[in-house]
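Thread: "does anyone have the structure for this chain?"

Original post by V.I.:
We have the sequence but no experimental structure in hand. Need at least a predicted one for the grant figures.
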Amino acid sequence: MTAELSALVITSASIGFFHTLFGPDHYVPFIMMSWARKWSAAKTILVTLLCWFGHIGSSVVLGLIGVALGLAVKRLEIVESFRGNLAAWLLVAFGLAYLVWGLRRAFRSQAHTHNHVHAGQDSHTHTHSHFLEHTHIHNSFDSAQARPEQGRGDRNKTTLSITPWVLFAIFVFGPCEPLIPIVMYPAAKNSLFGLVMVTCVFGGTTIATMLSLVLLSRAGVNLIPLAGAQRFAHAVAGATILLCGLAIQFLGL
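Reply from O.Q.:
Generated one for you, tokens below.
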């Protein structure tokens, strides 16, 4: 490895670390989603890896296209700026939508009581929420009543399962601005080894920093007694992601 490439590798590692550390969009969404939706550590890591791959991969592809077409770094920076604005607004939109959904879920999950009277039977009270599944245990009458709630539960699971893919789409649009000039330099010199080395170092540093911040913060949040606020966990997560997107868009984080 030449001294020039060594300096480029060290630069890649440094920029990858600080780019991730000072970019809250690299870890805040995963911390909040993991807490609100009670993801396991394994699922949190998997979703973070998926989004990292989209984030790094899209910028590498763009950088290589720039080299192939002979585009200047300045032109690619314009494209990256557009992608950055788009990703920030997508994060804002996702946070706002998740906030509204979380508030609706919180209010619908508040338990309340109904009085039921069935023919030939004594009346009874039944406590439930309009969000969580519930069943009436009254012979054949109840199995018919349970079906609509079962469908609602399935819809909730479907709604929740698309969230990692929404985050992935946002991160694909999200630019990795420092990577393009770093990648283009060895690529322009036809150094495949340098190109692979620089990309791997930058990407490895980025994901290591992301996972460290996500998992440490996740562990810290889980130690805080937040049982009373758990009903509003999704709303809090949405609000935090919304603020994160606004901070990126208007404060340049």
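V.I.: this helps a lot. The first strand starts at residue 112 and ends at 116.
O.Q.: and The two ends are 34 Å apart (CA to CA).
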